[in-house]
């Protein structure tokens, strides 16, 4: 009962209405891996493929490696790089593919709230964004991410196998050169509800619905996303 009340609270907190003039429908496919080399050092890797509106072409491919330092069993620091390719899918346009290079730093905190497994992520990004004219825009962005996993079985100190429900939210804030992006500190918000199955302590399969609310320069967009993900931990 306490878990249900907690999930209702999180849903109401994170699902504030989005004032968008445009709607899209896409799919995101993700693979996320963390590897621990020893008590303190490890690596992060994730790859994402995202479709365009109505899922009729591949819009984005993202590759994000990183090196992690574990402060303790619940806290970690990661330094990484991201390569993002964007297909604009515009007819009659010579430069349809735009590339973004990004450095990122993050702090991760894990803990439990009763039978709920919680994670908080604070990430700072330095973005080198290719523009249609060929020049690059430099910008910095801050992201805060909160995720909660509820095992759908009797409570255990650790969750090693079985079905689970997940709810998460991430907010993005522009810190630099926002006038050339969307003229706002608020960049976007991503709210996500999912179900999954933990095959073992090392592998999770997950699928759900993500609502991406983007604050654009000329028009705001709500993107309704079907997301599927594989998580591995070694």
From TrEMBL:
Alphabetic keyword roster: Signal
Signal peptide boundaries: 1-20
Keyword Signal: yes
InterPro entries, per database record: DUF2490
Pfam families from the UniProt entry: DUF2490
Protein name from the UniProt record: DUF2490 domain-containing protein
Organism: Hufsiella ginkgonis
């Amino acid at each position: 009962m306490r878990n249900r009340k907690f999930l209702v609270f999180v849903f109401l907190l994170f699902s504030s209405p989005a004032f968008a003039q445009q709607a899209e429908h896409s799919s995101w496919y993700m693979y996320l891996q963390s590897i621990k080399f020893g008590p303190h050092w490890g690596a992060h890797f994730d790859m994402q493929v995202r479709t365009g509106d109505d899922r009729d072409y591949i819009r984005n491919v993202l590759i994000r490696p990183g090196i992690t330092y574990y402060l303790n069993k619940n806290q970690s620091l990661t330094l990484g790089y991201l390569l993002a390719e964007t297909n604009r899918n515009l007819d009659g346009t010579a430069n349809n593919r735009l590339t973004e290079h990004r450095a990122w730093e993050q702090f991760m905190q894990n803990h439990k709230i009763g039978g709920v497994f919680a994670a908080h992520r604070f990430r700072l990004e330095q973005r080198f964004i290719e523009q249609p004219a060929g020049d690059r825009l430099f910008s910095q962005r801050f992201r805060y991410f909160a995720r909660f996993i509820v095992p759908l079985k009797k409570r255990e100190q650790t969750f090693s196998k079985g079905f689970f429900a997940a709810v998460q939210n991430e907010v993005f804030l522009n810190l630099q050169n926002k006038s050339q992006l969307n003229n706002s500190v608020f960049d976007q918000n991503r709210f996500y509800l999912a179900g999954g199955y933990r095959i073992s302590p090392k592998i999770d399969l997950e699928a759900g619905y993500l609502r991406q609310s983007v604050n654009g320069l000329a028009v705001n967009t709500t993107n309704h996303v079907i997301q599927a993900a594989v998580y591995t931990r070694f």
